[in-house]
Amino acid sequence: MSRRAELEAVYRAAWYEVKTPDKNVRRFRVGERVPELDTLAAERGWAWLSAFNPGSQLLSESENLQRHQALLNNLVNTQRAFLPAASGDDTGQWPVEHAVCLLDIDEITARALAIRHGQAAFLHAQPGEVVRLCWV
Description:
- By secondary structure, this protein is an alpha+beta fold.
- The chain contains four helices and seven strands, in the order H-E-E-H-E-H-E-E-H-E-E.
- Strand 4 and strand 5 form a beta hairpin.
- It starts with a helix and ends with a strand.
């Protein structure tokens, strides 16, 4: 099995969650619809992105937290709307990752952010559509 095929299986098996403005946590997986986020995303859609474990290579917790803070700083400095998010897997093989849910963002812009923060992939959804796994 190729590295990409292995990663795709891991990403598709993972759970992802977003803390909505009303403080509820919405958990989902790739291939599902998330209407709660669709209503916040406007016409360009939304994306789920983490700066943890760049290129899907495990880093220490302190390195990952520094990378996450750099992502948050970038989003604040560019005035990009986002919600707190996270991901993990049911087996516990991968540690829980801090992430963000970017609102009103197209796939091209989300891909550029994923590349900037060293990611192999990210999630994107258009309102009314299922969450897609997008490779950089």
